[in-house]
Specification:
Family: Belongs to the PPR family. P subfamily.
Organism: Tetracentron sinense
Pfam families: PPR_1, PPR_2
Largest sheet: none
Number of strands: 0
Order of helices and strands: HHHHHHHHHHHHHHHHHHHHHHHHHH
Low-confidence stretches: 42-46, 467-471
Helix content: 55-70%
InterPro entries: PPR_rpt, TPR-like_helical_dom_sf
Number of helices: 26
Protein name: Pentatricopeptide repeat-containing protein
Shape: globular
Structural class: mainly alpha
Length: 471
């Protein structure tokens, strides 16, 4: 029988690119040309003249990327060690940048640092590119002390570029150190490094988040006039959100029109922000105009847009209209998500309509949407606030069964209420459930135990333990 055509290194790269499953991709990489007729008692070296497979750099890049995306880090490290033995080529720095990024996203800072330190051992020179990847990974991991150490020692590794300063400025803005962010902005210019749209976007977003709209607009003007950098959609969105927070709707809509004139793509975040602001300002009648414009400009309302409307109606206690939006979503082929239902459950609980909130939570699976931990916490909180302790105990049992943990503040309120009522049977049952998820604090335990001792007249702690251990 004629042998099957062998997979070439070029063909392997093509196959790896097409394979979506990282496990199957790894099998293919490790054994690109399996023996179709394996010998049951093989010789350790049946064909000593057969040459080993000559993997290409692209194949290594592809498999490392797929394993990284799949968080198969042990296998990824094995492939890296194999690549290190290659003598036909030197790996490109981008491969290690990707590995560092994968570790950063998974909050594995030590492995990100280790990868950066190992780059020279692969006969690959470190540049500012891998240094920036490491800085960004450390920022994602919130390793701010190590982040600072690397920055102070930056000259040992590379000359900073605009990307370096963007990461540093982002770190300052994330920690509310706007003064330091401005100092870095001035420093990069003093070093001849031109700020780019990311630099301005980071600063403008931080200014808007801190209600410094005047400074944000001045910076927008400067970036266009002095630096000849045009604002992108992110900058406009940040400004619109900032304006909506302070109910400057006319200017927010003016910026939205500016985006359309600049041919910038508007996303659901912009429209949802405007819709929410209209509800807050008591102008829900204008929401239809926004939806009409979306249709005219080719933007379909998505779940985020509809959820903004649901939230607006619930805040007005117009639950009939909120359910009307749910029905409209189904007609438009936009399936409500768990947030859609959680918004209504929270609205019902706020108004004390606990039966309707409970009915909706029970009805969610029929509506093809399973309640999550927020659904249960919201209802449990509402029941505790209204001192509906029997129903709260029922919901608590469901939460414990699903391994959902209630909020400690509600737990304390729940136990305190049961102690005040003197319902020892329910209190003991609740304590037993709470012990399974370990969410009751020391002070609440003391209060409950004192009440149990006093009411049940238990003679010693061993009897108390027996009671608490009851199913």
């Amino acid at each position: 029988m004629e042998n099957l055509k062998k997979v070439s290194p070029f063909r392997l790269s093509s196959l790896l690119r097409l394979e979506k499953d990282p496990n199957l991709a790894l099998q293919l990489f490790r054994n690109p040309n399996p023996n179709p007729n394996p010998n049951p008692n093989p010789n350790p070296n049946p064909n000593p003249t057969q040459k080993p497979f000559r993997y290409s750099l692209l194949s290594y890049d592809l498999i490392i990327t797929k394993l990284g995306h799949g968080k198969m880090f042990d296998q990824m490290e094995q492939i890296l060690d194999q690549m290190k033995q290659e003598t036909r080529f030197s790996p490109k720095e981008i491969i290690f940048c990707n590995v560092i990024t994968f570790y950063g996203r998974s909050r594995l800072s030590e492995l990100a640092l280790r990868t950066f330190d190992r780059i020279p051992s692969f006969r690959c020179q470190r540049t500012v590119r891998s240094f920036n990847s490491l800085l960004n990974a450390l920022l994602n991991c919130r390793e701010l002390e190590k982040f600072r150490e690397m920055y102070l020692d930056i000259d040992r590794y590379a000359s900073p570029d605009a990307c370096t300063y963007n990461i540093l400025i982002n770190a300052c803005c994330s920690s509310s150190s706007l003064d330091n962010a401005w100092r870095l902005f001035d420093e990069m210019q003093s070093k001849g490094i031109q700020p780019n749209v990311v630099t301005f976007g980071t600063l403008i977003s931080a200014l808007c988040a801190n209600a410094k709209l005047d400074e944000a607009f001045r910076l927008k003007d400067d970036m266009m006039r002095k630096f000849h950098v045009n604002p992108n959609a992110f900058i406009y969105t940040s400004l619109i959100k900032g304006l909506c927070k302070i109910n400057e709707l006319d200017l927010a809509f003016k910026l939205k029109a500016e985006m359309l004139d600049s041919k910038l793509k508007l996303d659901s975040a912009v429209y949802s922000t405007l819709i929410s602001a209209l509800f807050r300002a008591g102008k829900k009648g204008e929401v239809s105009n926004v939806l009409e414009e979306m249709s005219e400009t080719g933007y379909k309302p998505d779940t985020v847009t509809y959820n903004a409307m649901i939230s607006g109606f619930c805040k007005e206690n117009d639950f009939e209209s909120a359910f009307g939006v749910l029905n409209e979503m189904g007609k438009k082929g936009c399936k409500p998500d768990v947030i859609s239902y959680n918004i209504i459950i929270a609205g019902f609980c706020k108004e004390g309509r606990l039966r309707e909130a409970s009915d909706l939570l029970e009805d969610m699976p029929r509506r093809e949407c399973s309640p999550d931990v927020v659904s249960y916490r919201t209802l449990f909180d509402g029941l505790c606030d209204r001192m509906e302790f029997k129903e709260a105990a029922f919901i608590l049992d469901e939460m414990v069964f699903k391994k959902y943990v209630p909020r400690i503040a509600s737990v304390n309120k729940f136990v305190d209420g049961l102690c005040q009522e003197g319902n020892m049977d329910l209190l003991l049952k609740v304590l037993n459930s709470l012990a399974k998820v370990n969410v009751i604090d020391v002070d609440t335990w003391k209060m409950a135990i004192t009440k149990v001792f006093k009411k049940a007249e238990l003679s010693n702690t061993s009897e108390l333990v027996d009671v608490l251990a009851m199913p």
